[in-house]
């Protein structure tokens, strides 16, 4: 296994693109894997392809459309409005088993290409109540992948303890703030860049950006 090679779970959004730049700065060889699971906007796949091409990185797109067959959620059932179930504390944008499956397949790719590190942009600080973004899950998944494939993988989570302001600061550290701001797609309405400004993803992203820029200006 090559400790200098990393696989990045890549959606073309703010978090995974920041993780991509983190990987490029810290590993000699970086590959991207994107999962097509019937997400709300096909533009997400196109954005991921475009960024990978611009950065000259090897990029796989895997068909995971079966996720939409497992349980109703607002990311794969486009007829559903995006809401938060206050009683359950989990938004209806939660896709059960998504990160578990993504990391399993990313680990299989890492096994195939001999990469030691798998990087994902999950975050417990701003995780919207998604249970599969918690640090305890990632640690458990890391142990499971190692046992299942008899390898010593490291699942790296550069954003785990960062809020959105700090995630923007990390992109800025790598000199990529403007790129991440203009080229990535986080918006639930499929609008690239600053997005619609209204959906939960945009509100979180834009509040973090404003906080980072205000802090930067105050220095």
Automatic annotation (TrEMBL):
This is 7-cyano-7-deazaguanine synthase. CDD domains: QueC-like (cd01995). NCBIfam families: 7-cyano-7-deazaguanine synthase QueC. It is an enzyme of class 6 (ligase). It comes from Salinicoccus sesuvii. Its EC number is 6.3.4.20. Belongs to the QueC family. InterPro entries: QueC, Rossmann-like_a/b/a_fold. Pathway: Purine metabolism; 7-cyano-7-deazaguanine biosynthesis. Homodimer. Keywords: ATP-binding, Ligase, Metal-binding, Nucleotide-binding, Queuosine biosynthesis, Zinc. It catalyses: 7-carboxy-7-carbaguanine + NH4(+) + 2 ATP = 7-cyano-7-carbaguanine + 2 AMP + 2 diphosphate + 2 H(+). PANTHER family: 7-CYANO-7-DEAZAGUANINE SYNTHASE. ATP binds at residues 10-20. Binds 1 zinc ion per subunit. GO terms for molecular function: ligase activity. Its cofactor is Zn(2+).
